[in-house]
Write a structure and sequence with these properties.
Structural class: alpha+beta
Helix content: 40-55%
Largest sheet: 4 strands, antiparallel
Shape: globular
Protein name: DUF4268 domain-containing protein
Strand order of the largest sheet: 1-2-4-3
Number of domains: 1
Number of helices: 4
Order of helices and strands: HEEHHEEH
Oligomer: single chain
Distance between the termini: 47 Å
């Protein structure tokens, strides 16, 4: 069992290492980008990466406080499902209105089971999981974001 401080420190180390690894990678627009804190510029729409104790996941997280708007965003993403899966070169799981940490969110996600951020031997697997997917999400978003504006 790990202490809260150990987990926090190790996660910080991992995300710092991942950020350095991704630093030279430019966005689909050819711009420098903060991959760790990806800004979709749409309220309530986030690209999340999570490295946990038993698994890792990357997601499009729809967190708008208004459930109807959240559902509208989810439906808009469904219209882009073929493009999303083609850009990612894989299918992701889709969940509408699920409880996460005391709030209701909708998400489109991919999980990598049986890895732990606490095991540094797993870090190459985690990086290999996150890197192509966040780059693909950026490429997808470059084409789809205009449908979510306004």
């Amino acid at each position: 069992m790990f202490s809260r401080e150990e987990v926090s420190r190790t996660k910080h180390e991992f995300w710092t290492a991942f950020g350095r690894y991704m630093n030279p990678v430019l966005s689909a627009e050819g711009m420098k980008i903060n991959w760790m804190n990806y800004h979709t510029k749409i309220k309530g729409v986030y690209f999340r990466m999570d490295a946990g104790l038993k698994s890792a996941a990357i997601s499009i997280s729809l967190e708008h406080g208004d459930a109807e708007i959240q559902e509208l965003y989810f439906e808009q993403f469904q219209q882009f499902k073929d493009l999303l899966h083609a850009t990612l070169d894989e299918e992701w799981d889709w969940q509408l209105h699920v409880p996460v940490e005391g709030r209701i969110v909708s998400r489109i996600y991919k999980e990598l089971p049986r890895v732990s951020v606490m095991n540094k031997d797993h870090w190459p697997d985690l990086i290999s999981f996150f890197k192509p997917r966040i780059i693909a999400l950026d490429s997808f978003w470059e084409n789809a974001k205009y449908s979510f504006e306004g």
